[in-house]
Specification:
By secondary structure, the chain is of the alpha/beta class. It is built from 8 helices and 26 strands.
């Protein structure tokens, strides 16, 4: 395998430029992105064959991962910048080569069924290997069980309006009480409720300051998330634009330079990554400005279906449903909050699974909601306030939240799980709750709101299929 930077522009910096007439199978072709007047690299393809003057290339775009003739596509011939070869690659024409493309900053506007038009999608896919198949080590098989850890909202403290809203010891200890659980996951997920920004940004303007909060965590707080074991975050929520373009761009920059995968904005609607031989796809949705819209089902289906075609396990996150302690129940209807359509979580989760999702993890209401299973795929409708320091209402149901531990097959089917109950006291920060209130809340809400749910939630927090025997649970 070959380790490469994750963006097409960065890959271009490690290639040796060559003339287009000299390209061979395995070489790369670089193109402009959205702005045709720009000279910046925004897209990359890989050459799959050269027959005379005809170049065939493979790349990922809105239409999927496709192979096409370069000369017949005006979109790309008008945006071509240069070709390049990777010094590490020595292709042999007699061997097949297995490619997984990077394609970032793709701008194809395709028409979907019903006449809807897909906006520009910026991919974050990683080149996994350019090693000839004959040279591949195929002795390493996928693990039989994959462990996913999921939590809800994360806001580790804000330096706005001042540093008094940051936790003691500069936040170093805030996640330590739950680190042992979080770090068990092959994938450990949470919703980053705010931006990472030590400096200043363009604070959002609010028509009603009484219901308006802006959150920005210092840049180095990313280290606390990494140390706790998180490697997947949603940034699709109502706080990712709290400090304008500056805050959003800085958050993306910091996450790109960390081991944490992320998605949820128009700039980065989804991502794929690999861990221990399993390929994961992730997409996140919300109703808010600049996010991938939860109510645009045609767009959501297209994204999820694509991820399903290139991944072993697809994880979908959504920030949806009305907020507050009185909004703990699944209504199976559209939910409104402060005049905003926050989607229908029940309907959205089933749509996502029908499109190819294997897990659906919800957040946004700031309270714990029911869990569910559909087509052997797990759903959590809201994972509540997990680690929200300083500026959140943590009274009553707002102050308890689950950590869900899920054991899945390598193709995404739910096998078993466990609920760990946490609570936040004082200004906040998660600790284990000996009263197991989040567990009891999930048991009660699932019985009431999803009475047909076939999951069995035990008093010790274990989750299993209702027809599973003791020997079936890993």
């Amino acid at each position: 395998g070959i380790t490469l930077p994750r963006s097409s522009a960065s890959i271009a910096t490690v290639t040796e430029k060559i003339s287009l007439k000299d390209v061979k199978k395995g070489d790369l072709m670089f193109f402009k992105g959205r702005n045709i007047q720009s000279t910046r690299v925004g897209h990359v393809s890989i050459v799959t064959s050269v027959q005379g003057d005809t170049i065939e290339m493979m790349h990922s775009c809105r239409r999927g991962i496709i192979i096409e003739k370069y000369q017949t596509n005006k979109h790309y011939t008008s945006r071509f910048l240069f070709a390049g070869k990777l010094p590490q690659v020595y292709p042999k024409d007699s061997l097949l080569v297995d490619y997984v493309l990077i394609a970032e900053a793709v701008e194809i506007a395709d028409t979907l069924e019903g006449g809807d038009t897909m906006k520009t999608i910026y991919r974050q896919e990683q080149l996994v290997s350019m090693k000839p198949i004959a040279d591949r080590d195929t002795t390493h098989s996928h693990p039989q069980i994959v462990k996913i850890i999921g939590v809800g909202d994360i806001m580790l403290g804000t330096n706005y309006p001042n540093s008094s809203y940051l936790p003691p010891n500069d936040g170093k200890d805030i996640l330590l009480p739950v680190k042992e659980i979080i770090s068990k996951g092959d994938v450990s997920f949470g919703n980053l409720e705010g931006v990472l920004l030590t400096g200043e940004g363009e604070r959002k303007k609010c028509s009603n300051p009484a219901i308006c909060y802006a959150f920005k965590m210092p840049d180095h707080y990313i280290d606390y998330l990494v140390d706790a074991g998180f490697n997947l975050l949603s940034i699709a929520n109502n706080h990712i634009r709290d400090f304008g373009r500056t805050g959003t761009a800085n958050t993306i920059r910091i996450l790109e330079n960390s081991p944490i995968n992320f998605a949820g904005l128009e700039e980065c609607p989804y991502t794929t990554f690999e861990k221990d031989g399993v390929r994961y796809g992730f997409a996140a949705f919300a109703p808010n400005t600049g996010t991938v819209k939860i109510n645009d089902y045609a767009n959501a289906k297209a994204i999820i279906s694509h991820l399903d075609s290139v991944s072993n396990i697809v994880i979908v996150s959504f920030h949806g449903g009305a907020e507050g302690s009185t909004m703990r129940h699944i209504t199976r209807k559209r939910e409104m909050f402060l005049g905003e359509n926050r989607g229908n979580p029940y309907e959205f989760a089933r749509m996502a699974i029908d499109a190819g999702a294997d897990i659906v993890l919800g957040h946004g209401p700031h309270v714990t909601r029911a869990i569910d299973i559909y087509k052997d795929r797990f759903i959590a409708y809201s994972l509540g306030n997990f680690a929200t320091y300083g500026r959140f209402n943590l009274s009553g149901p707002n102050g308890i939240a689950p950590i869900v531990e899920l054991n899945l097959s390598k193709t995404g089917e739910f096998i078993s799980g466990k609920i760990y109950s946490t609570k936040q006291i004082g200004e906040g920060g998660p600790i284990l709750d000996e009263q197991n209130r989040a567990l009891k809340e999930i048991q009660q809400l699932t019985r009431k709101d999803i009475p047909e749910c076939t999951l069995k939630i035990e008093a010790d927090g274990s989750i299993k299929h209702s027809n599973a025997s003791e020997g079936d649970t890993p």
